[in-house]
Amino acid sequence: MAKKKLLVICVDRDNDLFEKAKVSGPVIGKDANINAATKLLLADPEETDANTIFEAVRTYEKLAKENNVQLVTLTGDKRLGYSADREITKQLELVLGEFHADSCIFVSDGASDEQIIPIIQSRIKIDSVKIVVMKQAKELEKTYFVLMEKLKEPHYARMLLGLPGIFIIILSISYLLGFNWRLFGIVIGGYLLLKGFGFEERIIHSLSGFKFSIEKLSFILYLSALPLILISIVLGYQEFTARVAETSDGLKVVAFVTLRVLLLLPWAFLLIVFGRIFDLLHEKKRYAVVKYGLYGVSIFIFWALFTVASEWIIAEVYFSEFVLTIIISVVLVFASIKILDRIRMRIASSMKLENKEVLTELGSYVGKIIGVDRKKGVMVVQTPYGQKVDFDFDRISSIEEKVLIKY
Q: What is the pTM for the complete model shown?
């Protein structure tokens, strides 16, 4: 009688394995999982995901006596939500493509990992779900420590402490300026729009690259940008109060305020971008500089479009000039992307890529580079299963000790 093929699945939905121990998922096999859990405990002895992995190993050992069993830990993303579920789904499909299991046993710590169960069930039958609970923690004590640990994570701290703090400050400033609830409502509405359309995480991800240190030259540029931003806000407020008293045309008021704000604000953003470029050049991360070059071009285009649009609204330029500005901006964007892509390809071709490990932007392990065709702009990656996959250079998002690619 053929042995049943079982898959023991452990899920690290917030990707603590990569964030804390630099272990990329999927982690396949008993020995690999033991090593991963050990590294995670050494990085953070209080991490419950490590205990969950060890429980999955114990479950694997029990089932392996009578069944054909494979053990895997799937990792998500620190941002949780759709990003985490998408990465877990990709890893699960990769594993099922190599190990055609009849069913699986799901091992969880009972936290957010359980939310992934419907996704797993849509791809493989679940025979059993095992919840791991630390014995020494009573219910109230466990809840307290879970909350304290979660508040150490940037995502939860930002939501539970950061946002209420920002809203309180904005509400106070709003009352001081005589706006009552108006400024507060605008900020809340703007944030909800960013959150609803998924821009919040992208903005935070982009800003995470900016590291402030007094020991770096960029600190002076970042510091110089701050007064320009504050002055732009004050100038915008002064223009707003002056124009509201002159006219009831709200569109013209917005145009005048925009022109006044754009006198200094673009320069502040350019200083920030230049500061980041200096840091990257100092850290010898030439490949990443190209992206910030595109940011600089985008700031210029943004300034040109909004300036001409505002001048058209207040009848300082003709509509044809506004249309011409749009056309020039589109051409400039297209040309900039092509030029910067070519520069990026040249930089990638000049760098030593052989034997570097390749990961997705979310931390999922892809394989190791075993060859590079610089004429075609292609790198050959060997996966953990021995397969050879070609990736174009334009898939590369970062080149450091490891190569990150867009998945």
A: 0.55
